[in-house]
Write a structure and sequence with these properties.
Radius of gyration: 23 Å
Largest sheet: 5 strands, mixed
Number of helices: 17
Strand order of the largest sheet: 2-1-5-3-4
Helix content: 25-40%
Number of strands: 20
Length: 495
Amino acid sequence: MNTRQDPRPVRFFHHGEVVEVTDLPATTTVLQYLREHAGCTGTKEGCAEGDCGACTVIQGELDGSGQLQLRNVNACTQFLPTLDGRALLTVEDLGGPAQLSPAQQALVDCHGSQCGFCTPGFVISLTTCYEAHQAAGTRPTRQQLADALAGNLCRCTGYRPILDAGEQMFDMPARCLDRAPIAQALQALAADEPLDYGAAGARFHAPQSIPDLALLCETHPQATLLAGSTDVGLWVNKQFRDLGDLIYTGRVAALREIRQQDGGLWIGAAASLEDSWAALTAAVPRLRELWLRFAAPPVRHAGTLGGNIANGSPIGDGAPALIALDADVILRRGAGQRRLKLQDFYLDYMKKDLQPGEFIEALHVPLPSPDWRLSAHKIAKRHDSDISAVCAVLAIRLDAGIVEEARLAFGGMAATVRRAAATEAAVVGQPWSEATAKAAAAALPQDFKPLSDMRASADYRLKVAQNLFTKLWLETAGAHSAPIGIWPSLQEVPA
């Protein structure tokens, strides 16, 4: 662990060379750096909260096998030091008047831009999609293109010509980014010592091992633990909070591992939301729709499942799924570990069973048996990239048509994400039937007295949550019944 007082600069690859930053505050966003210091004004600021996509950039890093991985993220919520050892690509890196990139040319040809404010973000997301499919030798469907663009909003052009451009760029002669110089630069940067950056005030620590992270957390229990910055970034942008010292988990390779272990899925706390949900969905296919609607790709690429769970928001969509799957949370403080059920981790509104200096090391999701049935639903005003009014993941275990066990987890219905104990009691031991589903709906008011807010009224929340039991019945009854999913082999779990 680096303990020297003179910080080394933040070093990353940008515009064809390694850039060093020495004098900017640790909470300077990537967007601020681009527009105010690097002169790259193609990247725009729209919402400053990771919602509109105008600020989308490509972040590159080497994966566990040394291959370059390119993903689109929101520049407005990412702090500049998180780029250390990585690559940053903006719309200026993709093409210019002399030769446009495939995404840029297709948007021109298909009239996919009017005011143009959102266009650079669309170019970036289309390019990320293009690069991924060209590398895989595949071509996306129109729906896959729409899913890839879920984090980019346009108020004037309309999405049809933009999706047309997404299809047309694959009809052009293939022209991909030159990855070799990026990968070579990142391999060289990998030799740098761990970042301990302290320009202009608070320090930014980026340990590279779990013991070093644990020591920092014990030594600086008041420091802000930073993962994907998709929420913490808003503390600065919207609430103007002083975060103090920061301890960043994103450089601890061991915290990003996803593997099969102890009869279940082990998800390191710093594994991205995208990788975590890909692994969960491979194990439990019925979670796929919740994965696609969890957030937009730029948020899922930057955010972490551990951060989502540690945040403890009652409207977080990760906790209902994991609680319904009976997940454990593995906590670490110093050299010691403790393990508890995720449902017991949340004590009250934004209050967790987390001691000073303690952090989430991993989540363990048990392997469900084939007799479990599951239904997952996200209710929100927008289909894509929106916060839930209600998120429900309902799981029942059947034996000869009798409900032997139930785990019915709801978000948005109380001060914490939690199971519906009275409703579970109403169905356990009963034959799984339409009448039992109605009994569950009738019992739900015993478990929840939801609040009214800008997303939904209390009456709406309760009614829609009750209606989800009808969906559970329809999805799991008779010929429609399907197992919760068949878990893949270790080789099929995304790393």
